[in-house]
Amino acid sequence: MAHKVAWEVKKRSEEKAELENALNKCQQALYLERDKILTAKTQVDTLRVKQMQNKRQILDSLAASNSVEQHVYYDRNTAPEKI
What we know:
The protein is mainly alpha-helical. Helix content is 77%, strand content 5%. The chain has one helix and two strands, in the order H-E-E.
C-alpha cells in the first residue's frame, strides 16, 4: 500500500512539473503575441500619421499648382465618366 501511495505521489509530481512547463510555454507565447500586437498598433499609428501628412502635402501641392480638380465616377456596368 505504501508503495502504491509513493508511486501515485511521484506520478502526480511529474504531472505537475509537466503542467507547469506547459503553462510557462503558454505564457511566453502569450507575451510574444502581445508584443506583436503592440508593435502592429504602433506601426498602424505611424502609418496613419504619415497618411495624414501625405494627404495634407498633396492638397497643398494641388492648391499651389492651381490644377483642375477631376472626379471619376464608376458605375458597375459602364465605362468611367470624367467630369
